[in-house]
Write a structure and sequence with these properties.
34 helices, mainly alpha, 51% helix, 4 domains
């Protein structure tokens, strides 16, 4: 008997069904279940026995999808750190997709395996260094791992500790030890960091041509008076100098009077500007300059400036940039009292800063949840674990760019959504249709013009009528959603897989998967 024309819809739906037991899901790992592999392995959490089958699966596509799964524990994904395929390792190293704003870190042992691998794998498409680079940029390495890396026994990791862990945070004894390290690569990396802090060395190495490298040096590293004077005379790299905390103060004063308002704004935000110059900038003809001068009163710290920078400019509204791990390692971060003061500021920018701080006390969270500035409320929803559910839901409705992140939060409401069933936005209607607390099935959404809404309505936990589900399973417009409905019994799911031509494990599959049968024994 040939498979049903609805086979792929049923297979994908069953793969997403939250009530499908392991003996149903494991059948989908047969080659006949290939249309479901991405849904099954990448887009949902999996029971432990199925994870065992997935990480040992002979098909690279299965393992690669699981390596990118944002729903499973990172330790389970980490079992693929020594996978024979370099594309699987690279998928693990680059992290879940879509890339979360706040990724969960991989275990230390998994990180070490990926960073110290000598060979990438059998595909021959990536090098071990390229995979390590993917991991470093993925934000899956926690700060706690970097903390002691400069003392790690493996020289490659000591090099990374020097290059990435913050040379300025190391004490004199540790710096001296790295400069005398028995490994030449470690010594070279440490010597490079010493040169980075030497303005005379920078002057000698500064390239004449414009580009990212020159801009990075002049934005972040100490500069000599001669370099600053040359830039001022040529009228080049002035924004970089205005941003650089190491710029000589005579240059800062001249930059404060530059014709470019973006340069003056950067000066107005500096932590080392004196009261007289700040008062001058507070009278600047450009509003953005005046605002940065008055919004952050003296005395200031550079960490406070960085916190304000994170909510202004192109970060100002609906920013979906990565949410960093709270940096408890840093000793120069803003004090908790500063964030608390920001929560009561008259300036919305400072209240946005406070709303982005995940350790803000509960009483201030409650206050900011009622803030008149919508961006304060939305930042609170995205950043703070105590944000009220109604605030999180309001942000989901109002800010589509934030939805992938909000759906990962435990405070995201999943019930009490009846009032959203007729919302203009189909993504909001789909969320409401999946509400298990609905008194009645959202049957009117079964004919919604949006496919996502129809699928969610057919899969709705509130839809329990067996005859209605049977009809939906036979309708191409709703078959996939109906197959994902948690009210379908396991017996019916097996029947659908039979009709779709997916073999059961008690009869020979198209390709033998001995590890799957071992997982069921």
């Amino acid at each position: 008997m040939s498979p049903s024309p609805l086979s792929e819809s049923w297979i994908r739906g069953i793969a997403a069904n939250p009530a499908a037991p392991s003996d149903v899901l494991i059948r989908l790992l047969d080659p006949a279940g290939r249309p479901a592999w991405r849904v099954l392995c990448e887009e949902r959490d999996l029971p432990a026995d199925l994870v065992d089958a997935v990480v040992a699966h002979p098909e690279r596509a299965v393992r690669r999808a699981f390596a990118r799964n944002p729903h499973v524990d990172p330790a389970q994904r980490g079992r693929l750190a020594s996978d024979p395929a370099d594309l699987v390792r690279a998928s693990l190293a680059s992290g879940p997709r879509p890339r979360p704003r706040r990724p969960r870190p991989l275990p230390d042992g998994v990180i070490e395996t990926l960073l110290t691998a000598e060979e990438a794998g059998e595909d021959g498409m990536l090098t071990a260094d390229e995979i390590a680079g993917e991991l470093i940029s993925s934000r899956q390495i926690p700060l706690s791992y970097w903390r002691g890396l400069s003392e790690h026994p493996h020289p490659r990791l000591r090099v990374m500790g020097v290059n990435n862990a913050g040379w300025r945070r190391l004490g004199p004894a540790r710096r001296a030890a790295l400069l005398a390290d028995p490994d030449p690569a470690v010594r070279a990396a440490a010597a490079r960091r010493v040169r980075d802090l030497d303005p005379v060395a920078l002057e000698a190495e500064l390239p004449e041509e414009n580009g990212h490298f020159r801009r990075g040096l002049l934005t972040n590293h100490p500069v000599t008076d001669a370099v600053a004077e040359a830039c001022l005379a040529a009228g080049r790299d002035l924004w970089s100098l205005a941003q650089n905390r190491h710029t000589p103060y005579f240059a800062v004063v001249r930059l404060a009077r530059d014709p470019d308002p973006e340069v003056r704004e950067r000066v107005a935000a500096r932590a080392d500007v004196d009261a007289a110059l700040l008062a001058e900038l507070a009278e600047d003809p450009e509003e953005s300059v005046r605002y940065r001068a008055v919004v952050h009163p003296l005395p200031r710290t550079w960490a406070e400036r960085a916190a304000i920078d994170s909510v202004v400019g192109w970060h100002a509204v609906d920013c979906d940039c990565p949410i960093p791990e709270p940096d408890s390692w840093r000793s120069d971060g803003p004090d908790a009292s500063w964030y608390e003061a920001c929560a009561g500021s008259e300036h919305a920018v400072l209240r946005r800063v406070a709303a982005s701080h995940p350790a803000l006390p509960a009483e201030l969270v409650a206050r900011l949840a009622e803030d008149p500035d919508p961006e304060v409320r939305h930042r609170l929803a995205c950043h703070h674990p105590l944000a009220p559910p109604e605030t999180v839901l309001a942000t989901f409705v109002a800010r589509p760019r934030q939805r992938p992140h909000l759906l990962t939060l435990p405070g995201m409401p999943r019930t009490g959504l009846h009032h959203l069933l007729d919302h203009d936005d189909p993504e909001v209607r789909a969320l409401a249709a999946a509400d298990p607390s609905l008194d009645q099935a959202p049957t009117r959404l079964l004919t919604d013009p949006d496919e996502r809404v129809r699928r969610a309505a057919a899969a709705a936990p509130a839809l329990r009528d067996a005859a209605a589900l049977a009809a939906l399973l036979d309708d191409p417009a709703t078959a996939e959603g109906a197959a994902a409905n948690p009210n379908l019994p396991a017996r019916r799911l097996h029947e659908l897989l039979d009709l779709a031509g997916v073999p059961a494990l008690d009869r020979p599959p198209a390709v033998t998967l001995p590890h799957l049968q071992e997982g069921l024994s």
